[in-house]
Write a structure and sequence with these properties.
The chain is built from 11 helices and 8 strands. The chain is of the alpha/beta class and 250 residues long. The longest helix has 18 residues. It binds 2-hydroxy-1-(hydroxymethyl)ethyl dihydrogen phosphate. The site of 2-hydroxy-1-(hydroxymethyl)ethyl dihydrogen phosphate has 13 residues, from strand 8.
């Protein structure tokens, strides 16, 4: 089975003006993009709707987070039902910045995944180990532990709505990218885990993308790896080089 290449742009809390956001959309709108690649951009929550208006229709828009409840007294949170209502098809969940800075546990990320799926949203589910964990040879254990909680709450047929983003924490925003061999090794382990914990069909069909300092210089080599099905791009998604990353397979 061929898995459609997927490139996500995680803008994080950038840029902090609508003008800069418009400029980014214009660059993408004018670009010659590989039509075989699914492209999703995740602006800050306040800019989701203007971005959806401005961006070409073959690029999808994603939230960077959502809560587990659909409505109620949860000041500052984003409802997955509101995302659905606004026509936002994707949400990023479990990003390491959410896990480390905001203390989100794997159980909570799984609960959010369940809530998002219940609204019909697709999920970019992030997993990854710290440098300390990698050096202690705990990468598989950590990543499988993060996935295990999600496996518990997702039905087999729902995995088609999930893209797994493997983002080693030590490679995020540091300029230190995993080598293509390191990425391939962990992606293959994740696929093997899915085969044993869910099914071989899900393992074969699920896209596993890499994130962590992806740029125009390293994307082509990473994209040659058989289990690397795309990228989640942070810093470089705010620049024109994002186009070269989207076109990495061309
Ligand atoms: C990892 C990635 C996007 P960056 O967080 O999710 O960011 O490419 O800046 O390392």
């Amino acid at each position: 089975m061929t898995r459609q290449f997927f490139v996500g742009g995680n803008f994080k809390m950038n840029p902090s003006s609508l003008e800069a956001k418009k400029a980014l959309c214009t660059i993408l709108n004018d670009a010659d993009l590989d039509q075989n690649t699914e492209v999703v951009i995740a602006p800050p929550a306040l800019y989701l709707l203007p971005t959806q208006e401005l961006i070409r229709k073959d690029i999808k828009v994603s939230a960077q987070n959502c809560y587990v409840k659909t409505s109620g007294a949860y000041t500052g949170e984003i409802s997955p039902a509101a995302l659905k209502d606004a026509g936002i098809p994707y949400v990023i969940l479990g990003h390491s910045e959410r896990r480390t800075i905001f203390g989100e546990s794997s159980e909570f990320v799984a609960e959010k995944t369940r809530a998002a799926l219940d609204q019909g949203l697709s999920v970019i589910l992030c997993v990854g180990e710290t440098l300390e964990q990698r050096e202690a040879n705990q990468t598989s254990e950590v990543v499988e532990g993060q996935l295990k909680e999600v496996v518990k709450v997702v039905k087999e047929e729902e995995w088609s709505k999930i893209v797994i983003a493997y983002e080693p924490v030590w490679a995020i925003g540091t300029g230190r990218t995993a080598t293509s061999a390191q990425a391939q090794e962990t992606h293959a382990e994740i696929r093997k885990y899915l085969a044993s914990a869910v099914s071989s069909a899900v393992a074969e069909a699920t896209r596993i993308i890499y994130g962590g300092s992806v740029n125009k210089g390293n994307c082509r080599e990473l994209a040659t790896q058989p289990d690397v099905d795309g990228f989640l791009v942070g810093g470089a998604s705010l620049k024109a080089e994002f186009i070269e990353i989207i076109n990495a397979k061309r």
